Every structure is written in C-alpha cells, then in structure tokens.
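Extended Data, panel c. Modelled sequence:
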Amino acid sequence: MENITVTIDGKLCRGDAGDTILNIAAKNGIVIPTLCHHYNVKKYGACGICVVEAENSPKLMRACSTAAVDGAVYFTESERVKKVRKIALELLMSDHEGDCKGPCSLNCPAGTDCQGYVNAIAKGDDRRAVEIIKEKIPLPSSIGRVCPHPCETACRRQRVEQPISIAFLKYFAADNVAKSNAPVIPQKKAASGKSVGIVGGGPAGLTAAYYLALEGHAVTVYDAMPKMGGMLRYGIPEYRLPKAVLDREIAEIASLGIELKNNVKIGDDTTLAALRERHDAVVVAIGAWNNMALRCEGDRLSGVMGGIEFLRRVAEGRDSGIGKRVAVVGGGNTAMDACRTAVRCGADKVYVIYRRTRAEMPAEEIEIDEAIEEGVTFRFLTNPAEIIGKDGKVCAVKLQIMELGNPDASGRRSPVPVEGRFETLEVDTVITAIGQKVNVSGFEELELNTRGIISADEHTFATSVPGVFAIGDATNRGASIAIEAIGEANKAAKVIDGYLTGMDTPYRRPFVSQREPEDSCFARFEKLPRAKMPTRPADERKHDFLEVNLGFEDAVARAEAARCLECGCHDYNDCKLIRYANMYELDVERFKGEKHDCFKERRLEVIERDQGKCILCSLCVRECREVAGKGILGLVDRGFNTVIRPEFRDSDIIAGCADCLECVNACPTGALKFIGSDR
C-alpha cells in the first residue's frame, strides 16, 4: 500500500493512502475528539466534533470521514476549529438531560464523589470507599465526624423520606480501614526537585501539603502551635473529634515525606521573606484565630473571653478560666462547642444568648438538641447590651430583648431591639462566639482586602507577592467550615503544581450537566428511615470528654449506604461528551429550547436506556447491526423527533444482550447502562 505524509499540528505524520485524517492522527499519537466514530463500524460523520482545518482550504472537514491528502497540512485546534466544536457541543448539551454528578457531590465544597464512596460502602468495600474519599479529602475520619455535611442538604433521598447519612458513613469506612493497620497511601510521583513551604498546619495547610507531596514536590509545613491540626485540634472539642483519630490521620499525611515543623511563628521565629528564599512556592494557610469583639460596654472585663480562646485552653489542658455560671453569645457551631464544653468543665448553669430564634440559628440541629439534653438553656431573641462587672470582673449580663424584622442579605430575618425591654442574667463568665478574624501579624507585605483579610485571586490563589499563595479562612471571605478550606486547598494544590512546573493552570469550575427531577420520579422508592447514630446518654456524656457518638454497626452502615438513589451518571468518569465539554467554555444557555422527551426504558432486559443522555450518535445502532449482527436497535421518527428504540422481533435475540454489550461499551455518554444478568 502506498504511504503518504501529512503535517498535523506541526508534526510530520505518516500513513497509508486512503487513510482518514482521524486514523493517521491516531497512529501518530494525536487525539482528535469525536463522539460518533468507532473503529468497529463504518464512517458516519454525524457529531461534527472531529472537524479539522486544512491549510489554504476555505472549509473545515470531518476528520473521521475525510481521506488525508499526501503533503497536506492540517490543524486540529485552530480558532475556527475550536469555535465550530464549541457550537456543536453547545447544541448537543442543549438537548442533554442528565446528572453528571449527584447533587451531594456538587454541594460538597471539596467536590467529593459521595455517590462513589457510599456505593462502595454498600458493597462492603470500605477500602475502595476511602480511596475515593482521599481523592479529595486526606482526613476522612476527622472530617466525617465534624463536617456539617452540606452534601446531605442536597441529597435527593430526602424527597423520599430523609437524606443519606453521608458524613457518618465517611468516618465509618475510614475507621474500619484504620483498624486493618493498612492505611490508604496513594503512590507519589517522582521527585520534581521543587520545594513548597506551607504556613499553617490546619485542614487547609495539611490538605495542600498532601496533594502537593503526591505530585512529587518536597513539602514543609510550619505551624505556630505545639501540634499540627489547627482548628481541628484546638477548636473542635475532644468529645466530637478524639485527638487520637486526628493524630493518626496527620501521621498518614506525614508518611508521604512531608516535614512538619511546630512552634514556628512567622515574624518571631522566621519571616515570610526567609520562606520565599527557602522554597519555590509558599502557601499561607494561617486560619482565623482571633475572636470578633462584642462591642458593648464591659466587653473588656475579666471573665469575658472568646470562644476560640476558651476551646484552645481546654484542648491544651489548661485551666478553662470559667466560673459556675456561663453565658455563651452566638448561634453557630463554635457557640455549641463552647456551651457543651463549659458543661463538661463543671459549670452549673450555661446559657446560650442568641439574637434570633432557633429557626435562624446556623448551628446544626443535632448540636442544639444535644446541648439541650446536656442542660444548656437557650435565651433566644436576646442580645448583650452591657456586661456588668464588680471589682473589674464579670458578675452579670444585661440583655436587650429583640424581635425579628425584615430579612437581611443572608435571607434571615434581621433582629430588631424592642425599645425599653431588658433583662439581666447573673453570670461569672461570658464567652463570645460571634465570628472570627485573621491575625495578619508577620504577613504585612501581603495585600489585604477591605475586611483586613489576605487578598488572593479566586482562580489562581495568588497573593500580591509573587510565588506566595493563600487559602482557607485567612483569605477573601474569611472563616468558614473545614470542608470549605479543604476544598480550596485541593484546588490550589493543582494550580500551584502547575506554577511549579511552568504551566499556567488557573482553577476553572468543571462544567457538568444537571437536571431537576419531578417529585413523581421518587414515588417508586420504598420509604426506609435514615439510620440514627447511637450516642452516649446525656447524663453520662456531659461529665467527660469521651466521644459522644458510638458509631454505626456494620449492618446498619451497609443498609444506610444502600438507600442511595445513585443520582449521578454511572459513566461520568468515561463520558466523552463531558470530557470534551470541559475542553471549551460552553454557553449552554445559548441554544436553550425544546428538548426531546426524556425517558428510561429496560426493554432490552439487561440494558437500561436513558433517552435524556442520548445524543443520537447512532453508535449503538451501528454496533448492534455491524458488529453484533443483531440489528435490534434502530432510529425511529424523523427530524427533531428522532429517537433510538429497540425493535422487538425475537425475544431470544434480545435475551442474548447480556453476552454482547457492544452497544453499552461503545456509547460515549452513559445513555446505556448494564443492569445485570444471570451470568
């Protein structure tokens, strides 16, 4: 056969006369995207994704069906090509109805594949579950215990009865793997020769360290505290997160060769400039350790302390500094940690003062319930007007009675003082938990925003100083939950890896297809109540710092995981459509309009067809006819109304689908799913 030579994207490529451009490109290691082509079947040229440009040609051509011309020069990523591909993908996505990922994963700030690890737990494969979790979270046992689980807020199982207990399942699997004494430690890449210094050993810093070390970089973590862990250690009480659990997970992170240096304070023991000299990149993840002030008369009296300060004292084993009557001001999880810790430190009477009602409290419901069980008294619709002192020490707090007015920017109704109405509580200690702020001492050269927080680019995480990045509570929006910091650190690690290897790779939120199913879609599911986490009795637990939760039994956890509806696409990781969609910045609203009827059918007995995901590439039809020799599938109707349907002529042929699956394997979008057989 005669040989020909063509140039594709500047590379000299050899092929056979009559070969398509696509075929020659593939032989020479050049990937041209296509959705409707498969080497098992005849050329089709339907999707329009594989277009390429030829030098001096006014028209684009489809690489899968166009024979290459000897001596021709082709471009697979020219501006014209990218524009046409983008339009083709936007048209396809405008008629695509399906969930790439479950709403649980999309609502997780770390982007954890919740569906994946819950499914693995249901199958009894805890190790696989932890492998999936550790793709995004290096501290699964710790985070599973303390995360306020935004994943569960989005879980569609609640449209049947109650959401899956996703967070508790996370630590169930991680604890089980820990008992095996064979931790999940991913393989590191070869040493890059690059060095990263991370300031801050909390969840953000440890996460960045973990993923940068996996990329082969030498990582050193510097922390001002005696031990690593940040707020997980010093801000979360022992009864919620046993420090032995945290220590184990930090040791696993360190096993990647990460150097951990404690008692290093920037500005005292070293400087940011010195770290910049020592490392190729520096990551600032110092958290937000200062408390917001009450700003009322008496807020500087002895006996007034911040929630973080109080929790840190207890975590370090120092005297708590509280009296027998304690008022905690605030409505978040830190306030709940503070009031429940005060009970365990021996306070006879503990109040929570909150200026709104319980319905507006940001704290988790379970935290509020358990605090009440432990004897905490909640004083809703009250706010400190004055802290009253005697001989320089707190003796009472004067409370302004509040009522709810109009909603504020967060959607919660704003508290409004009721003129002339006050009440007084006799207390020895006032603990403030109304917010946290960043201490930027030692980082003065970094640009701050108007709130006094380190300013970092939201896509590159870069600060105003070259080579210095910032993540977590110390940046932009300020203090948030640990999973937010972990999610940001994971994204930043990818960007910083690109910076170290000379690639400009700003973070861009992945494009995914999403849908909103009707309530009728959930009617077929049996109602199965959510597993209840067993806890120690309140009268027992409130006297010590032993862990409150007792953990799921094996059978309970498996059954709970099996309640998952598996909303996300089974083929997401292999879906060509979404892979190509993320290569271009799509405007999916541009061609928004009428869609095909979306339905699922199992008329092929062992194969489920999802018409909403079908892009009419016809690969399944052609594979069934040309490769399997069955011709069961066919295109029905014309024009926009065209769909693919099975033709039922012989039930024996259809039953043989389980031994074939050529159509399932060829489908580029997950529109076909193998659902089981007797094999």
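The CA atoms of residues 237 and 337 lie 7 Å apart. This feature is highlighted in the accompanying rendering.
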